[in-house]
Predict the 3D structure of the following.
Amino acid sequence: MMRDLARRRGQRGITLFGLLFWAIVLGFTALLVMRVLPTLNEYFTIQRAVEKVAKEGGTTVPEIRAAFERQKQIEYSIQSISGSDLEITKVNEKVVVKFAYDKEIELAAPVYLLIKYEGRSK
């Protein structure tokens, strides 16, 4: 009975290999988060700019594209698209602006992560 109790006490904890495994998993997750967060920030900035342009940008396609370019000059984080990449339509007399772009993120050469972003005004 005492031997069983002593054996159980000695087997508590994590092994060195277990510790290394979890360190690698956490490190890779941290790397992924650090590389993806700036692209998410850019996406949400583009989404806000598109919403603003759809409401106040104008009525013609060139006016809306020019308004987006002005908004892009204010928001320095927008690098992935320009006004010419926007798809502008009218639905029930309301301007709808759509956008889509791909973002490649280098994790560790030659491994890349491809994220496809798309959005539209409401």
The chain has one domain: 37-122.
